[in-house]
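Researcher: I'm preparing a figure for a lab meeting and need a structural model of a single chain. I don't have an experimental structure, so a prediction will have to do for now. The sequence is pasted below. Please return the structure as tokens so I can convert it later.
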Amino acid sequence: MKKILAAAAALSLGAALLSGCGSKAADGQSSSAAVSEAESTPVRQNNAAVQTEQLTADPLTGFELQYSGKRPVAIMMNADSSAAGQWGAGAASVMIEAVTTGQQTAMMCLYPAVDAVEKVGPVTKGDDLFLQFSLPLNAINLQINKTVYAANLLNTLGDQDLDGYYCGTTCFDYDSERGAAMGNEFCWYTTADLIRSGLDLYGLSAEGGTRSLFRFGTEQRPDPSDRTAQQVTIHYGTGCDVTLHYDDFSGRYLRTGANGADQQDAVTGEPVKFRNVFLLKAATGVKDDNATRDYDLSGGDGVYLTQGGWEKITWTKGDVRDPLKIFAADGTELVVNPGPSYIGILGDFNGQSKTIYDADGNAQGD
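Model: Understood. Here is the structure written out token by token.
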């Protein structure tokens, strides 16, 4: 009976596949799997090779440290904001977005600790591109199913994730009200209690060290004299354009999806907004399946937007366990404004591009 229940969980959760911005919701009704337990794979303790730091501020936002000695949480989220709202997107400390296959984006949201997760979803398929940003932070990674490249990466490093394809409703729950009108890919979510159950299933801990994602400043950067970055439009692929526009009142960039409306957190109803926007350009190829994008994460150039202004940057990363490092035009490590951040990763395919506009609607040069 246990094997039958585990298989049911795998089939139902496996249907929650990747769906990026601008994609259409599936028609018809869906039902949740009645699964309370799933067979676990052999326990693999997380690789101790991750280097950590003695932190004096929140590692993801630079704000006051609230979760000392806790591992961050990285959750793969359905990037389609036009068909259904995303639970917990507005509470994310960091949102990372990129195309991994086709024309649509995938998305990872980072939270400072398990206790910071209220309700997050819809949870979707994992990809190794995003793991290369979360693994250096010693994060707890959650997804529902994953690419073979993500699976191989985790197996090679001996790093255990929480994957709904295996742990079922131990780690994830199904929103039946949403499921009455939308496909499974918009209905699965997780909470702090569910994450703890998943950690217990594998004998893992929410405690542990991490490192600061950026070099945060102790004070806010001076306001720019001109709003040269009032808006940025990112062309990720056909039918997949994301816009972030600056709100002078809040001092944040609000994310607008493919439907032209500001993205809202499905829990709070508040706009999803960021103090910092990083657009990182990387050389790209195609992996051996002839479909999955292969990003060169050794480094590249990009732009940094904050407080309605922008500047050129360069960045490096390197190996899987190496942290992201961002540098100003003069070669010094960039001092970043404390606050939540958006990271968009752009490659050399699908005509991917970004356009920055000033307060008068004039496009800015690179």
